Nuclear transport factor 2 family protein (Streptomyces omiyaensis), 139 residues
Amino acid sequence: MEEGDFDRLEDLWLDDGAGDVSCVHPGWPVLTGRAEVLRSYALIMAHTDYIQFFLTDTRISLAGDTALVTCTENILSGGPAEDGAELGPLVGQLVVATNAFRRTPEGWRIWSHHASPVIAGPDDDAPPAATADDAGPSA
């Protein structure tokens, strides 16, 4: 993704015959199927002149031919340059991601990627208090 190499990115995703892939980019609805997921990456790459990922808090869990990887993506990106500048304004974003991988004869491939923006600060370690509306239907 950082190098803008769509062919390499495409090779990372599980083939259609091995199971439906899915992807949730921050703020997007769920995308299902390899073609739809890859189209989303093509659109992102076409509209992003610069992107860099710093991964932290990485955790890996294995169960047979399935791996679950969670991490924090510290993303720095820039869009198109304006007024003759070399690069557009840079924007930082903090995202937590969950990635499911499946082992194939060709190696590990992404089965599902789900990324959500982090909106809580570092001192906000407790979830918001539940309200009566959160309780759901009564038994």
Observations:
- Residues 129-139 have pLDDT under 50 and may be disordered.
- The beta strands are 22-24, 31-32, 50-63, 66-78, 90-104, 107-117.
- The radius of gyration is 18 Å.
- The chain has one domain: 6-119.
